[in-house]
Inverse folding.
């Protein structure tokens, strides 16, 4: 996303400062003044950032931690806590630059190094949103995106929980965000922003003669081409169905397969040690996901509210769906089923949250609850892989469902918002005509590329980690529990 | 002296304690245990994985008594702990050679 | 609440868009332009919605869950989690419409079906607030109100915790929100909004001759009459003393009486299994209640801040009051007492939060702590009903105290804000003259109608549930715990 | 901080109200109109207030509570919960006035009584921020600062946890906030605000002749002199390094020494009873700290985002630093180490959060992790004092490091924001020239005064409490646990 | 009758239970205990404070059996619980004087 | 052989363990139990509901020893666990017929 640097300007009370502008400088300014952030948008993005951090810690940590045996509780908490810390530092040092700057000849796949160490970013630089003329402070854009980079690898570790060494997890994550996450975030989310496109389109419209027209048209194309590969395919992903969930889910499955099953699996009973923690975690995930999905609108308006509503409704629907399927299949509706259903709805609605309507999201949620139940309770047992906490069955499967459904539910005829066109009426966004074929193909291509890139890349990284620090502890240590073996502590001393 | 060990259903503790007090017992020790027996357990299901849980929560009560009180104690426990349903538990009686009260060093019957 | 639909309009940076308006169209616009949401208001309401969801899950779930025996922990968590999900779906499908649209001939008691399936609601439709010319996106109004609909029935289940079947609770809640909550919310909170009244009052003032005056006066009356019964009585309830707390509290008591006592109550010791969870829950309730009460102002201004301050101070005062009364009566101040006191203060200040001053709220909190202690520790034991988690003693009693006190503390002479009059100076709100008699009578009538409607209605619904799915499990199953019997799980496997 | 009272004014949609101003009154208004709050700022401060409350309860309560033995769990939770309640009431009654009004002849050290019982504060009064022309509702400023007053004494109790009587803690806190916290908050944070200075500087610039100039200059000096002692020294503390952390940390150490060691310390093993709770607490502290630090900017702009970024990055760095040092020194990286590191980073970055750049904050975090590890794991054992939960080693040491480092990292040459000068260009803030010597000396003086005032004052208060209600329970009661002895409850009944 | 008490490693419970069932035992009682013995414990470190933890989690299994079954029971436990590593545990056999089934009042061998 | 069972106050565990080691004992097994006796319990109050809790947390220590060590063991426990206050606990001694070390199959005294 291209950032606009403005001169240092003291923010003043709106009435006074605007008045000054209006009277002192006249209409001319309206054309040229760089947009300044609206404090309502900034306030919301500050909060959304806090909410997404809360999703990881303590949300996800508890959701996962409650599901393992108590002897491995701290290992889950420690892995997730340190993934957040490690990735925050990597994101600051070079991740943000790799994801959200132009990557030159590699721009299709990854960004460049122009913003390493936050070079050029300061309290006055702004980041574009999805609305023309609306910007937010770049620092908050940076921080919001940082929380996404932190939670994605944290999702992965659930797939091989209770058996993977702490040092291995840390090394894996450092490599994984560098070679998988930063590139995929770039491919899906990097673009020039609405004002750059709007300005170029205006210039084209204003171009006087043929030569100027050609030049302006070339410039517009160039600006539109300055975007990640998947973005240019026209695939849409409001809050991270591909980047976060499919990406993490497939990496988890690959890890579970390469690392192998837990000692004793599936013979020994491996019951969740505290569904209370799991329920707390799921609840905080839900609350935090409002920041994740509605925050992804980058401003605070009706579309933001729509994203929140969709997140709410899809989640409720998915929990109900899982509940009824399980009740029918197993005779009792479990709390673990309810919260698993809720999370599957949250995952599925993520890419669709700002594009679908509430009724579309409700249907999507219902579908997610049923489909993820099927993968977790039937498919996994059938194939016998040990995806400890169902990262594949929920995040990858739910993410794929959501990504494809987004291509359908965005259709205004189904209550969706439609896809925005920033060229038709330069300077503002209008809804483009919806076409099913191209939309669904773009989504499918995005899903496939993510599966392949992350699946293959993760396999390579796991092998590297195995050959260097090693992936697993000794069988005895695993039996004793990772808390003692890796951290020298116990979770509970009652 | 005898040591009487009873395995009972947890919610019967207060009744058993009262019956023992009535029978002249002044002290006892209780442990939370898990019992396996004829009483069938239950099934727990976690995301499709079903586990048959055959160990059920029980309480173990240990009472050291002078030999002459053993019968009364057994009877008191039997009637207080009985619901008539499977899983009511067992009483085991063994002989006890010595007893000491740590605080005073009192011995045997005086220590109980 | 009547909603204003505006044309799709891209939000722009305030300086640019306002400038355009000022220069391009002149003063005329000021009269006719439909108000657009302020992003600061939207940001706050997004957050407030998240906070109220957090009150239910995990807040209330933990507050209640910690108080039951561990064998019933999951049943509490599951009931509350699924109530949120179920009610969210019902609210989306028809609840919002029943509460917040005009109900035609039934408009006194309930709304109509014009917005079922969110018909006509979109990212550009707005909802009125309590200030003239201030609107918020309707989606966020919808979502904020949804969280209220979710938490209210969740409060009820505490009264008959540890003994009521999951299926019975779900069926009860579906019926209860439909026949009790949606109507009462309509009766208390549905009105035409400040701009509708202001515009009609302006038209009346501008009416040239007698006939026009009569017509305009009739129109104004019609608009004022387009409100729920209790609203028209002049009863005020800032954030839900009647709608939420009295309503839930009396339904809980009725349920506790009809369902009967827990097996073993009061002979067997039924100690809270984890006061830690209860304390976490109470704390999250407190934090979330800022969203509940201050969010009920629907915008982000000084009154919102006042509501937050009142919520803070009344709660602190009530906790102190309970602490000292218990210390005096029982010799020791318990943590459970402190957090119970805090919740009683939160309940009592709810209807008063935007109307009273901080000192009035402090006194109200102190009174709530003492009164609720008395009901919980003395009255309940005296009468011997088994209100497991004191839903009546805290929510109904605290709610009644708060509802009546609101009629007193709103008095500007006591530091209150006064009741707003939207007609005296059409287009803005002025403080009406306070009269004790009418104020307190309106409050008392609101309390009584709520008690009767919810009390009788709930009794009927409980009977229906009993005759269909049945209210209770077998004694053996209740002894073994609802977690295993209803859900096939255990909370803890340490 | 001086407050501006404005007439009651209905907030309207920005477009309409601003338009009216612009057209109806012309430029003249720009000089004289009192600033009104921006709703984006208000929204953010509402939320920040909720976040800081969440830091205390349940955040800090769980962070501390997890570290004690389970028999003392409730005593920690109860102490922290009631400290929040008690201080909230004291702050409302007189604390706010003592901290944030002019104290007349004692103004160097403490404020006066002009705002006791919130006298003169209402929904329309505003509080200054750090930007000219930007105000926020005084109620939210009051509430935000209240949360700081609540958490600071709550931090202290960790130092003498597991052995101090509930009644003693309550009495201590009442005295301590009155004689230590309110004065130090006044000394560090009370000033006339940017507009008062800007207006006086403008008047000076506009003064026609010599006499007028002299008068205007005197007026400006008077306004600048209307500030707390430490503020006037030029010491800077963005969010409370001195006021909160050094202050609480030294009081804790003094308490630990006067109260003496826990029975059995250090012979008996005193392991944390639930690192899960500690991890939840640390996570909520981190999330809440965004409100603490970024909220301290009092508005929602790029600097607020910077403060959030700094808080994020320093914390991550400190957790990594502690992890690696512990891994090297002890062979295993513990979860307790990771979260302790994170908290040490949060503490250290507090005074620097709005002044340093992200890279400076990263370095500060790394240093904090190492230094606090050293104090907690080496120094404490060496000296043998029983600072149960390392309040001194983390809060005091981290706070001192942060306070001093702030004087360095604020340097724009190191990526800092520089210190603002409100006189050079009256009406807006410009960055003053940075000078190392004065900056570091001002910081050192602030640290020293805080250490002495709080150290000596706390010692006196502990002695008073000892002679009145007594500090400790009987040895038997301490062995049995404070939960039963003080509160008659147990935390867990599994 | 005999009462056989075995201290075993926790993860061996299912195997021991199965071996006992195979040996004709119909009931048993399990207690979570902490064992101290030749098997060394571990060190836990909390903010620099190191604690040597020498008590290790074990399970205690109690089985009342007719005397003639005692040998079979001891053998069943020994082979099911053995890993060959230090800390596998012990079996203790004492004599049991009486046994009563609470539900029915049945006595001795009938009660087991 | 004898099996010595002691009920002690929880915070005395380390001292008792040290005393036993000094007396030549190499292993022991500890169980968390609740004791009822002359030592009075406490009252807990939850929102006005008062519960008299008469069961107090204790630890049960079981040590199997060669008969000749029994006296020394009893004395070691008695002096290490004594505070002189009510509730210090009891020691019970019974005879032990057989002991087996699971790991090796060693028998009786060799197994201890
Ligand atoms: N042979 C045995 N040795 C030790 N404990 C036993 C034995 N048989 C049963 N128990 C204990 O007694 C409890 C009840 O036994 P069970 O067979 O279920 O029912 P019942 O006592 O009605 O026959 C079991 O849960 C177990 O704890
Ligand atoms: N003398 C004893 N009395 C009671 N229990 C014992 C005794 N010796 C050992 N134990 C129990 O047996 C367990 C295993 O003993 P240990 O010496 O560690 O290994 P091993 O059984 O392989 O010799 C101990 O943890 C303890 O619970
Ligand atoms: N007859 C008994 N049988 C078994 N355990 C007993 C008996 N009497 C006491 N105990 C145990 O000993 C503990 C201490 O006994 P108590 O009577 O309270 O004090 P003291 O040991 O000082 O006489 C009790 O808590 C209980 O666990």
């Amino acid at each position: 996303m291209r950032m606009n640097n403005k001169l240092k300007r003291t923010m003043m009370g709106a009435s006074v400062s605007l008045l000054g502008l209006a009277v002192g400088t006249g209409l001319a300014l309206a054309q040229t003044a760089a947009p300044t952030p609206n404090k309502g948008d900034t306030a919301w993005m500050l909060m959304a950032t806090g909410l997404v951090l809360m999703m990881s810690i303590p949300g996800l940590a508890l959701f996962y931690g409650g599901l393992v045996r108590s002897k491995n509780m701290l290992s889950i908490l420690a892995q997730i806590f340190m993934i957040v810390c490690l990735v925050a530092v990597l994101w600051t040092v070079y991740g943000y630059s790799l994801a959200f700057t132009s990557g030159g000849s590699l721009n299709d796949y990854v960004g460049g190094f122009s913003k390493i160490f936050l070079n050029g970013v300061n309290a006055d630089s702004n980041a574009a949103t999805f609305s023309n003329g609306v910007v937010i402070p770049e620092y908050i854009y940076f921080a919001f995106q940082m929380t996404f980079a932190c939670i994605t690898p944290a999702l992965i570790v659930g797939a091989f929980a209770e058996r993977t060494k702490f040092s291995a997890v840390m090394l894996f994550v450092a490599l994984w965000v560098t070679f998988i996450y930063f590139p995929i975030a770039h491919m899906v989310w990097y673009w020039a922003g609405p004002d750059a496109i709007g300005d170029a389109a205006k210039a084209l419209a204003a171009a006087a003669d043929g030569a100027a027209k050609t030049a302006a048209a070339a410039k517009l194309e160039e600006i539109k081409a300055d975007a990640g590969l998947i973005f240019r395919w026209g695939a849409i992903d409001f809050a991270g169905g591909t980047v976060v969930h499919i990406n993490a889910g497939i990496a988890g499955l690959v890890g579970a397969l390469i690392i192998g099953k837990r000692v004793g699996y599936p013979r020994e009973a491996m019951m969740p040690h505290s569904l209370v923690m799991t329920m707390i975690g799921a609840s905080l995930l839900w609350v935090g996901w409002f920041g994740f999905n509605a925050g992804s609108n980058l401003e605070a308006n009706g579309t933001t509210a729509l994203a929140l509503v969709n997140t709410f409704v899809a989640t409720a629907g998915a929990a109900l769906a899982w509940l009824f399927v399980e009740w029918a299949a197993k005779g009792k509706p479990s709390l673990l089923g309810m919260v698993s259903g809720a999370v599957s709805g949250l995952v599925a609605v993520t890419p669709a949250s700002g594009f679908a309507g509430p009724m579309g999201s409700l249907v999507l949620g219902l579908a997610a609850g049923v489909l993820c139940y099927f993968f977790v309770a039937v498919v996994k047992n059938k194939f016998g892989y040990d995806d400890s906490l169902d990262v594949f069955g929920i995040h990858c499967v739910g993410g794929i469902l959501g990504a494809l459904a987004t291509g359908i539910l965005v259709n205004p005829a189904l209550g969706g918002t439609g896809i925005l066109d920033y060229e038709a009426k330069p300077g503002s966004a209008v809804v483009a005509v919806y076409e099913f074929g191209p939309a669904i193909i773009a989504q499918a291509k995005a899903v496939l590329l993510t599966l392949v890139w992350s699946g293959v890349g993760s396999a390579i990284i796991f092998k590297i980690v195995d050959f260097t620090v090693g992936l697993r502890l000794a069988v005895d240590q695993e039996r004793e529990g990772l808390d003692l073996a890796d951290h020298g502590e116990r979770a509970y001393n009652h | 002296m005898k040591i009487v060990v009873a395995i009972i259903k947890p919610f019967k503790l207060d009744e058993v304690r009262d019956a023992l007090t009535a029978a002249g017992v002044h002290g006892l020790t209780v442990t939370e245990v898990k019992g396996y027996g004829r009483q069938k357990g239950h099934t727990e299901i976690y995301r499709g994985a079903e586990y048959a849980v055959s160990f059920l929560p029980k309480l173990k009560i240990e009472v050291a008594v002078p030999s002459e009180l053993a019968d009364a104690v057994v009877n008191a426990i039997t009637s207080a702990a009985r619901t008539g349903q499977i899983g009511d538990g067992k009483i085991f009686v063994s002989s006890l050679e010595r007893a000491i009260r740590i605080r005073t060093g009192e011995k045997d019957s005086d220590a109980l």
Observations:
- The longest helix of chain A spans residues 436-468.
- The first strand of chain A starts at residue 3 and ends at 5.
- The pocket of adenosine-5'-diphosphate (ligand 3) is lined by residues B 27-29, 62-64, 101, 103, 112; F 7, 35-39, 56, 58, 86-90 (CB under 6 Å).
- The two ends of chain A are 51 Å apart (CA to CA).
